[in-house]
Amino acid sequence: MAGVDRRALILKAATQSFAQFGYKATTMDLVAKIANVGKGTIYTFFKTKEDLFDEIVRKALHELKSVLDLGLHEGDPFFDNLFRVLGALLEFRSDHELFIKLQQEVRDIGTAKALDGTHRLEGLVLEYLQRHIESGVAKGEIKPCDPEIVAYAMLKMYVALTTDWNKIHANPLTKAQIQDHLMLFFADGLRSSGEISKPSTS
Amino acid sequence: MAGVDRRALILKAATQSFAQFGYKATTMDLVAKIANVGKGTIYTFFKTKEDLFDEIVRKALHELKSVLDLGLHEGDPFFDNLFRVLGALLEFRSDHELFIKLQQEVRDIGTAKALDGTHRLEGLVLEYLQRHIESGVAKGEIKPCDPEIVAYAMLKMYVALTTDWNKIHANPLTKAQIQDHLMLFFADGLRSSGEISKPSTS
Amino acid sequence: MAGVDRRALILKAATQSFAQFGYKATTMDLVAKIANVGKGTIYTFFKTKEDLFDEIVRKALHELKSVLDLGLHEGDPFFDNLFRVLGALLEFRSDHELFIKLQQEVRDIGTAKALDGTHRLEGLVLEYLQRHIESGVAKGEIKPCDPEIVAYAMLKMYVALTTDWNKIHANPLTKAQIQDHLMLFFADGLRSSGEISKPSTS
Amino acid sequence: MAGVDRRALILKAATQSFAQFGYKATTMDLVAKIANVGKGTIYTFFKTKEDLFDEIVRKALHELKSVLDLGLHEGDPFFDNLFRVLGALLEFRSDHELFIKLQQEVRDIGTAKALDGTHRLEGLVLEYLQRHIESGVAKGEIKPCDPEIVAYAMLKMYVALTTDWNKIHANPLTKAQIQDHLMLFFADGLRSSGEISKPSTS
DNA sequence: GATGAATGAGGGTTCATTCAT
DNA sequence: TATGAATGAACCCTCATTCAT
Q1: Number of domains within chain D
Q2: A115 CB-near residues (< 8 Å, 6+ apart)
């Protein structure tokens, strides 16, 4: 028991529990048990349950920002950049899968502060995506569209395939499956060539 | 007060509260107050809080099934059917918006049973979509793809644009905006014509 | 169990426990056990522990006021009035001994609000006494003196003989003993007649 | 840091905190911080918090005994002795104000042992006073009276004027004010000369 | 049948005490 | 020996559920 970093142990346990059971259903007793630590120990590092939660969100925010900053290369083609960043997010996910899950697990907390945390997480990615899409439209790489809506759709689709999917399926999608489908929806569309491009008016 | 259907009153109140505050934050006291009945009365109709919740999911499931059955016309083109059904879901949503919200409000329940309820709701739609996609692929209307993944993506995208979006934006998207973007992603893709179809190998 | 007034039961139990053990050492579990009531029941009547405490102070304040109002007869001699009121307070004590004890049991509560409550209790009596002493001085019934200090001394002496004494002695003082000694200190003094009235300068 | 007496440091810090915040509100963390030692260090000198408290009471008891022994001069007049001792207590108080405050701060401790400590402190002074009063009665300097009750009244009055008063007033009473009032109550009484000495029978 | 007062298990938090360093 | 991180019992409070009316 000598070299264990109890703070990290607790953060990991809490992250796992928040992701798996949500905020309310995560009890400090449970976190303590998962971390194999006394309940009181948690309070040596975090003032309240909310504090513990905030810290997790903050850490995720920070790592996310790094990933995004590293992934966007100004001069590269739109889809190159998109998939490089999404790929990086995927790595981020495999390291810290639970952080991403948090995004959806947080809802009924009530405190504006905690909710803000989650929204900031989402907001950060949306901002990056939106800027990237605007730039893609400006360069003529993608069709004119509402960048805010498309950014939102991209994020949600990404989360759906990387995280939500695992809630109802035992086997996660492979990195290739995820990239192929994102490409399918956001680059090419499903429609077979040769089809008419508008549904007949009903 | 003679002829009021107390059971319906309670179901309506609980639905509203579950949708607005989530499962945990909905107290039986609150449901009783909204329904304007005694707290004990709830227990004459529903054995537990979970029972009450299950009943709401079950009812939603039933109505959903009707919507789907009515919307799918075997002979019509793929995208005709898709948008007719999604449009119908939109109507279903405006009538029972709260039911759909439930899908995300249920997360931290913990009890496998309650989660099952939500998954059944989701599963029903997925099943319909998957069958529809398989049929579309078979008829050559859409590209060959994994119907399960695509169905899942469609549902999530639909929920994202109709429901999730409203959590961070004051104004909901219009029905037209929703349909246009679904079409954009699932029919045509974002890429401008004239572009190369694969990202450069990294 | 039919006709019991649970609110009164709880108030009585809490009063007893606050008086005996003090604010902090009184646990809601203890109050519940003394009152023979479920812990949750307390919270049906009182929002918090502090609320419960406040209610007790408030009730004491009210009864105290009645006693004082009834005991002071404007025209009567000073010591008649003094002993009538003190006698009445003694009755008040035998009915509600615990309320008076509260005055000293409240100290380390911390919340300004709760402390106010106790100070109000003390302040009410002090106010009455001070007015009465001023009137006694004005009529020449007692020597000129600082009414505020004398009022404070009277109250503390009264509480010392009626309440504090019992903390270290098994048998309370009799009503006669209390009155005799109050008379001794506040009317006549201890000094034997024939003595010189000032201590020799040291 | 070599030559500091850690035990004394801790005793001083604890005394200050007990006096200022009371027994319950004094945490071992706080004592450690005030004493500028590690929390564990306290436990090398004192087995428990109660032990620490007891030691403080014992020390106060000892100093008190010295004060009393020095103040009583067998041959002097009663009131000379009384005021010399009370005066000395006042000095004792200005040196160790906190010890005296302790007397009232200890109330909600609950443990019979700790309460005993306080009672011993009180008992010591009472014993001295009682002996002195008995002697005064024997010499005819003061009226026959119950020495135990009078001693108790004197102590309480003394504490009331020196300590309790400060809790509700910004300015402490001066030494002269305290002595004058003690004389007023215990020597001469409040009643104007020329008054009848018994209240009219009610 | 309808009610809501009563309940107690379980939640977050504090703090006296221990013990590995 | 001195330390303070770690601990868990015990605190106050919430709320799903029961049951006498």
Answers
A1: 2
A2: A106, A107, A109
Q: Cβ of D175 < 7 Å from strand F?
A: no
CATH of the domain at D13: 1.10.10.60
Do D159 and D98 fall within a single domain?
Answer: yes
D116 or C5, which is more confident = C5
Identify the H or E element spanning C158: helix C147-159
Write the residue in A160, A189, A192 that is nearest to B186 by C-beta.
Answer: A189
Supply the DSSP string of C170-183, one letter for each residue: SSPPPHHHHHHHHH
Q: Rounded CA gap, D37 and D7, in Å?
A: 10
Interchain CB contact of C138 with D (< 8 Å): no
* pTM of the shown model: 0.73
CATH number, residue D97: 1.10.357.10
Q: How far is B168 from chain A (nearest CA, A)?
A: 8
Q: Do B145 and B133 form a contact (C-beta atoms < 8 A)? A: yes
Query: Residues A70-108: pLDDT tens digits?
Result: 887 878 888 888 888 877 776 665 445 555 444 444 443
Task: Convert the pLDDT of each residue in B29-47 to its tens digit.
Answer: 999 999 999 999 999 999 9
CA distance B108 to chain A (A): 5
Is the minimum CB–CB distance between B113 and chain A shorter than 8 Å? no
Cα(B90)–Cα(D49) distance, integer angstroms: 67
pLDDT tens by residue, A142-175: 888 899 999 999 888 988 888 778 777 888 898 8
- What pLDDT shows up at residue D96? 52
Has residue A193 been placed in a domain? no
Query: Which one, of A8, A39, A130, A132, lies nearest residue A82 by Cα?
Result: A132
CA of A160 to C1' of F16 (A): 34
Residues 6+ apart with CB under 8 A from D95: none
Q: In angstroms, how far is the first alpha carbon of chain C from the final one?
A: 70
- Is D52 within a domain? no
Q: How far is the CA of A99 from the C1' of E9 (A)?
A: 32
- A112/B contact by beta carbon, under 8 A: no
What is the extent of the structural domain holding D103? 57-188
Q: Is residue A199 part of a domain?
A: no
- Is strand F less than 7 A from the beta carbon of D6? yes
Contact call for C and A: 3+ CB–CB distances under 8 Å: no
Establish if C150 touches chain D: CB-CB under 8 angstroms: yes
Flag if D189 and C192 touch (Cβ within 8 Å).
no
Q: Are residues D16 and D61 in the same domain?
A: no
**pLDDT of the residue at C93:** 58
Do C112 and C130 reside in the same domain of the chain? yes
**C78 → chain D, closest CA residue:** D199
Q: In the predicted model, is pLDDT for residue B116 greater than 60?
A: no
CB contact under 8 A, C79 and D185: no
